Structure to design on (406 residues):
DNA sequence: CGGATATTTGACCAACCGGTCAAGATAATC
DNA sequence: GATTATCTTGACCGGTTGGTCAAATATCCG
């Protein structure tokens, strides 16, 4: 067997980068090829269509994110720490984005989800699935926090949805305004939203 | 003087509808012309470019929204009622969208803001301005609520930003999942986020 | 080395993109 | 009813879109 190429990976990376920074519809196949230094013929050797490439790129991004989430939401950590620790991590990476490419980028799944959500595409379905899974991390952390009474959240699922909405809304505002300082409000907002007890608020 | 036309208004309405439902980049000039039953030549008689049309359409949408906000956030109403009343109104109109076109559409300013936010276009600037103004309604309501001690929010601006993020995040989730039921969580989340007192929570 | 398979290349496609324009149609005004 | 400014029309533009393809080339394996 002949020749192994990394052009497919370069395409995945370039696609994620461009779609994340701009948007799905604003990113053309030619743009992606140019950024990945791959000719269009090779593009269609590896991927059947632009939408399939986007799907694969988001899937790859999710795999990376999942391993970070698994670490930050480890059950060995106090439940509220998992959440605030994750928010700290998000603030850090968004600041890094801003340093590198000049923009706060927000969440790629959420951004593309907003863009294509109403169109019933395969992309939309995949994104809903990813967001659902991300929600689960919040849900179990909140359930644990409730069990050890650092938080009062009888319905952990609803509380997780509200926290997730607050989190994504804050991240999106940071993108729209290109201001990572807004992410500093994630921690206090989360504790407030979950009705965290006084003692739990410190650090 | 000759001939008065409403083609410009039809274009504004069609543009808002299509951009809101789909996205800015997914909506073409031809799409808009078709929906408005206007030939392309007429389009460019009234508007110099697609982006200027979008700008004007969002501006018109904001004017309509502003008059609703002025009414629902009237200082004659109890401060928390202004907020919950607005959320009720949003839930109602989003349900209506879903009934009419099958989709929860979310907030047009926020959606387009997410899409073009990083590109430094005039559209982005306009949207930031609109979102800022919408934020002010929350801010004064929260300040009033704090003054009459139905809420504890020493920094009304920060509290407003957090509430706004929660509101937009929830609306966007409802769009992504096409589920208006999520909007039912706006009220309880808002009261929780603002640390509303027990008595204030009842209806 | 020779063959099999994986990859690369660049030319090509029809459809569509945002935008232009000259010519004609229409209607309020005098 | 002529004038005049507003609006409408449809043909047209070069560039870009997502996507195709046959031929060339590179590599691994025996």
């Amino acid at each position: 067997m002949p020749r192994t190429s990394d052009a497919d990976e370069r395409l995945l990376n370039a696609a994620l980068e461009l779609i994340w920074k701009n948007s799905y519809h604003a990113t053309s196949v030619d743009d992606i090829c140019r950024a990945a230094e791959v000719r269009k013929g090779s593009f269609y050797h590896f991927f059947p269509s632009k939408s399939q490439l986007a799907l694969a790129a988001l899937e790859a991004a999710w795999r990376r994110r999942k391993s970070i989430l698994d670490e930050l939401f480890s059950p060995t950590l106090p439940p509220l720490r998992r959440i605030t620790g994750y928010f700290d991590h998000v603030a850090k990476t968004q600041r890094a984005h801003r340093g590198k490419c000049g923009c706060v980028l927000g969440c790629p799944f959420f951004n593309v989800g907003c863009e294509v959500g109403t169109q019933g595409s395969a992309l939309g379905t995949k994104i809903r699935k990813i967001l659902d899974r991300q929600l689960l991390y919040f849900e179990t952390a909140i359930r644990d926090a409730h069990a050890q009474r650092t938080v009062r959240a009888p319905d952990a699922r609803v509380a997780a949805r509200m926290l997730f909405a607050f989190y994504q809304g804050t991240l999106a505002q940071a993108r729209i305004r290109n201001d990572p300082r807004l992410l500093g409000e994630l921690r206090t907002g989360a504790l407030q939203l979950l009705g965290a007890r006084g003692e739990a608020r410190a650090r």
Observations:
- The CA atoms of residues 4 and 46 of chain B lie 12 Å apart.
- Chain B has a mean pLDDT of 94.
- Residues 1-4, 28-30, 40-41, 43-44, 48-50 of chain B lie near DNA strand C (CB under 10 Å from a C1').
